[in-house]
């Protein structure tokens, strides 16, 4: 059977009239956009009745193609337990999004650590029920009311809001690689994931697993495993976690919030990977070694996994530079000529004009679509 994937591009740099954070998610079916599958809402309560499924590379709702523009807003579940955050942020964001015709929002369904404000999991394995019911439950319920579907991210490779580095710290690990390889750390994450996926929403009375408001589970935000040029470690982790989530919940699509870096299975595409000015700038040396252009992701290998439904790439062309044939050599800036000029001659930010970003996007997305077709997934 030929299976295929939806492609979601997270454009953190291309703001298209978005609300707070800038992310445009688009599902590319057969290269055309046919409009919104679900009619614009007249009433407040949209009560989404059907799951988003996929038929090959086509997203479907109730037997019809589902096309959407979406946005990223990671912090709503954290603001929501705060009364003012609930009214001034959650309610307003979903109301405005509905008015704009936006259909999908991606947000954090995790937050870990004693010091995090409104942490869902203040200590390992201890969930705060008040925060969950006033936070995530309220966000899911309000999204549904406004006819907006959610991509729920289950943890973060980066340290914001806890995430992988917090699990590593909790369990006495020393590096992000421990997160991908140590069974005790993986089991701790699985315990958390299970609690969320099987949670009964205290506001709607619907288990997350059974709620069509949720479009997809996003296993981890922006994963990387520096130093593993084979990409095998991360791919094995994604395989195991995607199988686990599908096992708990066959109703929802599953994806990874990946950067979209090409890896060992596609050596010819390595020179296309952007290198990372961002990494150098924010010298968080433990988590962002400057060589993470070969940072353990193998986009095609991940896309080939049976329980990964959606391809993802996160684009930061305002930060990236472009490397030459050896993807560890990020000094020699190459790539789309248009970007190169500004990257070599200018400072850090505003390296890339909107036109230049679009040039990069078309090129990068084109390569991903080609690759998706080559491996028989589109
Ligand atoms: C929305 O409307 C449906 C159908 O009328 C109803 O069953 C559901 O409880 C309502 N949901 C909310 C959150 O108001
Ligand atoms: C899925 O797509 C195939 C090929 O485009 C089509 O023949 C089939 O009818 C579709 N199935 C459903 C359930 O829509
Ligand atoms: C849960 O969070 C609320 C709100 O921050 C706090 O008042 C409460 O003490 C927390 N409960 C636990 C068990 O941590
Ligand atoms: C979820 O909670 C609601 C309200 O308490 C209840 O009616 C429903 O049976 C619960 N669902 C499950 C699967 O426990
Ligand atoms: C380079 O930067 C300048 C100033 O920001 C901008 O006007 C120009 O369009 C940029 N060129 C490209 C190719 O992005």
The name CATH uses for the topology is TIM Barrel
On the 0-100 scale, what is the average pLDDT?
79
Bound molecules: 2-acetamido-2-deoxy-beta-D-glucopyranose
Overall, the morphology is globular
- For the record, the CATH architecture stands as Alpha-Beta Barrel
CATH homologous superfamily placement: Glycosidases
Tally of structural domains: 1
Residues in β-strands, percent: 5-15%
State Rg.
20 Å
Helix content: 25-40%
The number of helical elements comes to 12
In CATH, what is the class?
Answer: Alpha Beta
**Numbering strands along the chain, what is their spatial order in the largest sheet?**
5-6-7-8-9
In N-to-C order, the SSE pattern is: EEEEEHHEHHEHHHEHEEHHEEHH
Termini distance?
12 Å
Uncertain runs with pLDDT below 50, 5 residues or more? 1-45, 277-293, 322-351
Counting DSSP E segments of at least 2 residues, the number of strands comes to 12
Structural class: alpha/beta
The biggest sheet amounts to:
5 strands, parallel
Describe this structure in words.
By secondary structure, the chain is α/β, with parallel strands linked by helices. The protein has one domain: Glycosidases (TIM Barrel, Alpha-Beta Barrel), CATH 3.20.20.80. Helix content is 33%, strand content 14%. Strand 2 and strand 3 form a beta hairpin. Helix 2 (83-100) packs parallel to helix 4. The structure holds 2-acetamido-2-deoxy-beta-D-glucopyranose (NAG) (5 copies). The site of one 2-acetamido-2-deoxy-beta-D-glucopyranose (NAG) has 3 residues, from loops. One 2-acetamido-2-deoxy-beta-D-glucopyranose (NAG) binds at residues 338, 341-342, 350, 352-353, 356. Its EC number is 3.2.1.78. Residues 51-264 form the Glycoside hydrolase family domain. It is found in: Secreted.
């Amino acid at each position: 059977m030929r299976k295929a994937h939806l492609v979601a591009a997270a454009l953190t740099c291309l703001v298209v009239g978005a609300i707070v954070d800038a992310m445009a998610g688009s599902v590319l079916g057969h290269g055309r956009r046919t409009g919104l599958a679900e009619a614009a809402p007249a009433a407040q309560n949209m009560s989404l009745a059907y799951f988003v499924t996929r038929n090959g590379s086509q997203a479907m709702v109730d037997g019809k193609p589902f096309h959407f523009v979406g946005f990223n807003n990671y912090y709503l579940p954290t603001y929501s337990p705060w009364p003012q955050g609930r009214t001034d942020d959650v309610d307003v964001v979903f109301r405005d999004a509905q008015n704009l015709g936006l259909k999908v929002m991606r947000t954090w369904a995790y937050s870990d650590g004693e010091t995090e404000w409104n942490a869902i999991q203040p200590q390992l394995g201890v969930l705060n029920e008040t925060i969950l019911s006033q936070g995530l439950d309220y966000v899911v319920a309000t999204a549904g009311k406004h006819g907006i579907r959610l991509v729920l991210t289950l943890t973060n490779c980066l340290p914001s809001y806890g995430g992988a580095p917090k699990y590593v710290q909790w369990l006495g690990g020393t590096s992000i690689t421990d997160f991908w390889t140590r069974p005790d750390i993986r089991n701790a994450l699985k315990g958390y994931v299970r609690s969320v996926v099987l949670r009964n929403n205290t506001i709607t009375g619907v288990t997350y697993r059974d709620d069509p408001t949720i479009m997809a589970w996003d296993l981890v935000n922006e994963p990387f495993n520096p130093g593993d040029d084979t990409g095998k470690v991360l791919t094995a982790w994604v395989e195991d976690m995607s199988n686990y989530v599908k096992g708990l919940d066959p109703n929802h699509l599953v994806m990874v919030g990946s950067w979209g870096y090409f890896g060992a299975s596609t050596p010819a595409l390595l020179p296309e990977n952007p290198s990372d000015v961002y990494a150098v700038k924010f010298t968080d040396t433990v988590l962002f070694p400057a060589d993470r252009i070969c940072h353990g992701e193998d986009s095609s290998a991940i896309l080939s996994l049976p329980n990964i439904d959606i391809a993802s790439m996160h684009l930061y062309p305002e930060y990236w530079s472009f490397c030459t044939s050896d993807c560890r050599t990020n000094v020699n800036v190459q790539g789309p000529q248009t970007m190169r000029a500004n990257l070599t001659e200018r400072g850090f930010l505003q390296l890339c004009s909107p036109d230049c970003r679009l040039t990069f996007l078309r090129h990068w997305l084109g390569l991903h679509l080609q690759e998706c077709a080559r491996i028989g997934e589109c």
